[in-house]
Amino acid sequence: MSLLDTIGGAQEFATLPPVAGKVLSLLENANADVREITNVLETDPALTLKILQMANSPLYAIRSNVTSLQQAVLALGLNRVANIVLSVSIFSKFILLSRSKSAEHMKKFWYHSSCTGMVAKNLAIKIKRNFNEVEFIGGLLHDIGKMAMIQFDPENYEKVVQIITEEHIPDTDAELRVYGVDHLVVGELIARLWKLPKELQYIAGHHNDASKLTDSHKEVVALVRVADILCEMWGASIDEGIFSVDLSNDNSWQILCDFSPHLKDLDLELFTFELETEFRQAASFLNMVASDASSK
Asked: Which residues are CB-contacts of 126 (< 8 A; sequence separation ≥ 6)?
């Protein structure tokens, strides 16, 4: 049985964690009722506690003390709540499922993913583009295909890492050699199984090359890829086989410049230096999401 068949039939990948699925389903409604969302969240005490911790953290800089879940949802906004629900639910579920051989890779995976989400969010702000925080969730979930490979077959994932290190080839080439499929195909399958929005399906399946996508999805996918590359270069790596980057000639950066021509005149060195400073905030986000995962 192929890896795709195995994942497609696996219960843990068949659906999102229940509370996450319910909340995201409710948020698809433009007139989502905060009370209804709050009622769903309250069924998960650990998740409720995490949202309150987040609402009172320096990360979101809410000035007043947040003491109730409904207050937290109103203060954070529905998009941020969705981010937290996805982060905590998925992180907790798959870290707990990890076998000893995959646990260390999973921690590395989540550090990279959280960093990519934070950098994507800050990058969108810097280039003055509003993606309704799809870029954050996209950054968080862009490598879910890699997560599945680590989860289901950590021994072969070790072989992939060895090939990348010894032969200096891209991760997708090494994955094809070992698994017969790459993490982009696997990631898009999982995103479809979870019935995630099209933008997130495309980010999971096409973040290495957004050029073939339609304009309505191309920009946000390219933005997540730029964030992904920068995180690799700044020490939050997940064995992508990226050994050097010239951002000015990178395909994803060129796509962003096509949508925002003023980016071509940027001092890229200064721009990325400022962004790297903001990248350091990702560690605090990851620590908050990861702490007490065993309570889920």
From this structure: 271, 274, 275
Q: Quick one: fold of 3-295?
A: Hypothetical protein af1432 (1.10.3210)
Write out pLDDT tens, residues 213-231: 988 899 999 999 999 999 8
CA distances (Å), origin 193, targets 7, 45, 106, 164, 197: 10, 27, 21, 29, 11
- Residue holding tokens 């260390």? 104
- Taking only the tens place, the pLDDT of each residue in 34-66 is 888 888 888 888 788 888 887 887 667 677 888
Q: Where are the domains of the chain?
A: 3-295
Output the CA–CA distances (angstroms, integers) from residue 216 to 22, 220, 260, in the order listed: 27, 9, 14
Nearest to 74 by CA among 51, 49, 47: 51
Tell me how far apart the alpha carbons of residues 201 and 210 are, in angstroms, rounded to a whole number: 12
The more confident residue out of 20 and 163 is: 163
Q: Write the secondary structure of 219-266 as one string of H (helix), E (strand) and C (coil).
A: HHHHHHHHHHHHHHHCCCCCCCCCCCCCHHHCHHHHHHHHHCHHHHHC
